[in-house]
Amino acid sequence: MARDPRADFIDDSPFPESNTVYRVHSHQDQSGTIHVNLQSPFSATDKTLWGVQFQQPITHHKGDLWHFSEEEKNHLLLATFAFTIALGLMRVGGVLGISFFGMNSWALQLLLSMPVMLLAVGPAFLLHEIGHK
Description:
Strand 1 and strand 2 form a beta hairpin. It is elongated and about 70 Å long. The chain is built from four helices and two strands, in the order E-E-H-H-H-H. Helix 2 crosses helix 4. The protein has a domain of 62 residues. Strands 1-2 form a two-stranded antiparallel sheet. It is mainly alpha-helical.
C-alpha cells in the first residue's frame, strides 16, 4: 500500500526513491484521478450457469421476525441436520474413530450422541441462523 502523503508533514519518507504502487485493475487519467475496473470476471454464460445474480438489489425483510417461508423452513431443517451430524461425528472422532472404537460401537455412539448434541447446541444454532434473517 502506498504511503499517505499527509505523513510527510511529520516525518520524511523512508523510501523516497520508491515507485508509486498502482492497483492491478486501475488506470489514472490526465487529472490524476484513479479509476478502478469493477467489471465482473465472469461471463454472462457463467452467471446463468451458476445462477449468480451480481446486480440483484438488496431487499429488506418487512415481515414478522418469526414468519418463515417453506423454503426457509427447509433450509433451517437441512442446516440443523447437517450441523447435528457434524457435531456427532466430532464427538466420535470422525470417520477415523471407526478404527479406534470398531464399527458397531462407533455407529452406536454416533447415533446416541447426535440427539444429545441437537439438544445441547441446536437451539443456539437456530437462534444464530435466525439472526441472519
